[in-house]
Amino acid sequence: MTFIDQQIIETVAGEHAPYTDAHIAAYPVEYIAGIDLYNAGEFHAAHDAWEERWMGEVSAQEKLFLQAMIQSAVAFHHLEIGRPGAARQMYTRAKEKFARLGTNIFMSLDLEDYQQQLDTALSWLLTVPDPRELSQPDLPPPKIKLLPELSDFD
Q1: Does residue 142 lie within any of the structural domains?
Q2: In this structure, what CATH number is given to the domain that contains residue 111?
Q3: How distant, in Å, are the alpha carbons of 24, 102, 113, 127 from that of 146?
Q4: What is the pTM assigned to this prediction?
Q5: What is the phi/psi pair of residue 42, to 5°?
Q6: Number of domains in the chain
Q7: 29-39 vs 43-54: helix crossing angle, rounded to 10
Q8: What is the 3-state secondary structure (H, E, C) of the chain?
Q9: 10 band by pLDDT with thresholds 50, 70 and 90
Q10: Which domain holds residue 46?
Q11: Is residue 52 part of a domain?
Q12: What is the mean pLDDT of residues 129-141?
């Protein structure tokens, strides 16, 4: 498929692809698969894809990043099954791990943008001592879209 064909497909679909062929070549297949699953709303499956990579031989930084991504996906899974308290725990743990990474971009993901999207979708969980007291607002989960530039991750 040519670049122009890809652009036509993206325009017809009404959105841009979350990553490029260069990302596919540069990053582990589990990371890319997790992005596809997450963006499709398959949060538990995204967790499984990222966890497969996380359990392998990866650097400490990549392990921390993947764990944060896994926990953010699991937060949405817990909301789907009616467990807002567990969702809040996963959300706060993910935020803590993103902060420990100490970088704004990892594996071409703009972490500031992603965390802003997370906060928009999940910060309501932190507004009361027990989030079961609240009705879940109709807020969309983040959409993962990688930056064009490739970044080191080992």
Answers
A1: no
A2: 1.10.3450.10
A3: 11, 18, 11, 30
A4: 0.88
A5: -95, 75
A6: 1
A7: 170
A8: CCHHHHHHHHHHHCCCCCCCHHHHHHCCHHHHHHHHHHHCCCHHHHHHHHHHHHCCCCCHHHHHHHHHHHHHHHHHHHHHCCCHHHHHHHHHHHHHHHHHHCCCEECCEEHHHHHHHHHHHHHHHHCCCCHHHCCCCCCCCCCCCCCCCCCCCC
A9: very low
A10: 26-133
A11: yes
A12: 89
What's the token pair of residue 140?
């969309």
Predicted pLDDT of residue 15? 58
CA distances (Å), origin 150, targets 21, 38, 86, 106: 11, 20, 34, 9
Q: Which of 75, 78, 129 is nearest to 97 (CA)?
A: 75
Reported for 51-58, long-range contacts at CB under 8 A and 24+ positions apart, including other chains, are: 53/28, 58/154
Cα–Cα distance, 71 to 120 (Å, whole number): 16
pLDDT at 2 > cutoff 90 = no
What's residue 6's pLDDT?
A: 46
- Residue 59's nearest CA partner among 25, 32, 28 is 28
Residue 5 has pLDDT above 50, yes or no: no
Tokens 């972490």 belong to which residue? 111
